[in-house]
Amino acid sequence: MSIEQHNPMHPGAFIKRVYLKPNSIGSNELARQLKVSTGLVSRLVKEKTGISSEMALKLSKVLGRSPESWMSMQDNYDLWQAKRIVNLDDYQALKFG
Questions:
Q1: Are 10 and 77 in contact, with CB atoms under 8 Å apart?
Q2: Number of domains making up the chain
Q3: How many CB atoms lie within 10 A of CB 40?
Q4: Contact 39, 12 (CB under 8 A)
Q5: Which residues, other chains included, contact 33 with Cβ-Cβ below 8 Å and sequence gap of 6+?
Q6: pLDDT tens for residues 35-77?
Q7: According to the model, what pLDDT value does residue 40 have?
Q8: Could you tell me if residue 67 is inside a domain?
């Protein structure tokens, strides 16, 4: 039995809520620490873009948590979004054996 997360948080929203707001850190400062453009971090915290594996490595070093946990957060968010959009009613499982 799998336990499915309901409406998982976007990694950018998580970063904003857990790291930036409580510590009064702006997205420009985070961008400098990550050595990426301010536009990229802005899009990330506004949930307009996701986390790549390269970004997961950088976030792990700068904010903490494992790179795998950052990727898992992104994957969970993406899959939940896809489940809301993709209609699988017309698909059949292949029969093996």
A1: yes
A2: 1
A3: 16
A4: no
A5: 62
A6: 999 999 999 999 999 999 999 999 999 999 999 999 999 999 9
A7: 98
A8: yes
